[in-house]
Design goal:
Two copies of one chain form a homodimer. Chain A contains four helices and twelve strands; from the N terminus they run βββββββαβββββααα. Chain A is an alpha+beta fold. In chain A, the strands form two sheets. In chain A, strands 4, 5, 6, 7, 8, 9, 11 and 12 form an eight-stranded mixed beta sheet that branches. The longest helix of chain A is centred in the middle third of the chain and has 13 residues. Chains A and B meet through strand 2, strand 3 and helix 3 of A and strand 2, strand 3 and helix 3 of B.
């Protein structure tokens, strides 16, 4: 079953015009009818969707990445990256996990999917993967510096509440898990190996 | 004392070039040196900063807005809008509160300030205002539909956890307040009238 793309709260209409094509961002404009019947130009950005994956080994350890990008502050998060043109989210997440960590996994489940920013057409899919195992060396390009960090579920919750945790889309779920015991155990079950 | 602008985790360098100027979004590009010494073109978007204000009456009721924008789903949140070119955040928040709600306030404090999206140069300032009182009618443009909703602090926490709550930058603080009694009372103090 294909993964459904989450909807935006304010979509780019199909007749919108591409007015600028950048390296990462495309800019669309359209004539929007306002509440009084007058029209004005609306604008919205489009960028490639993102996939994020928390991969879990059969011993329960979760694979995080400590990353640095040129000109940016270091951060810690899951593996992940862009869904390239013509690629589907599942293929992208498998590719990014392999490139960034050298791991493959047996099973990928979508844990969260949303369009986090109102004026940007941009979906973020967050997966939890099971049966993860190291099969290759890390394969980075010159714009990436990555170190792996294996953590337990309880350690992950603490790290997710740090300011330099990069997976902002799921922070709310980790905060709830920190404070609400029922939610914590439900989330723990999603991260527990199926073997 | 002027309000300090929060820093981005990956800033646009001062020698970046403006390659597209849109209605809402400007696109900048620059040559970035990578970890192996090679160079590539990096790209980042800039948009006007946003101010958000939770205004509190002297009876403790907090002014929220139920809003609809053309082509978008309805949402509930605080008052707020863009910091126009040449405007400072405090002037902007006073103007937006008056336009969207018809209220003025005696005191404005910055509760949260952040740049929420990595690849966008865009700061969001969230204020709590005290001594709020109705002084005028709402003054909307044809792109806005707004109804006021007065709520207690406890009602605000429940509303902030709904999916259609628009002030995503502070949702984490409301979740913590929901579950952690110490944080809830600390936050309640910020929303308590000073009279």
């Amino acid at each position: 079953m294909p993964i459904e793309r989450p909807e935006s709260r304010q979509s780019i209409p199909s007749d919108a015009k591409l007015v600028f094509k950048g390296k990462l961002f495309d800019v669309y404009q359209w004539e929007q009818t306002l509440f009084d019947g007058t029209k004005t130009t609306f604008e919205k950005i489009k960028r490639l969707d993102t996939v994020v994956v928390f991969a879990v080994q059969d011993d329960g350890m979760i694979i995080l990445t400590e990353q640095e990008q040129p000109g940016g502050l270091p951060f810690v998060g899951a593996a992940g990256g862009r869904v390239e043109q013509g690629e589907d989210p599942l293929s992208a997440v498998k590719r990014e996990l392999l490139e960034e960590t050298g791991y493959e996994a047996d099973e990928y489940n979508v844990w969260d999917a949303q369009q986090p920013v109102g004026k940007i057409d941009w979906a973020v899919y967050t997966f939890i993967a099971h049966g993860a195992r190291k099969v290759a060396e890390i394969n980075l390009d010159a714009g990436e510096k990555i170190q792996l960090k294996l953590v337990t579920f309880d350690e992950l919750i603490d790290i997710a509440l740090q300011e330099n945790f990069s997976e902002r889309e799921v922070v709310e779920k980790f905060i709830e898990a920190k404070y609400d015991n029922t939610k914590r155990e439900a989330l723990r079950a999603l991260f527990t190996p199926k073997v």
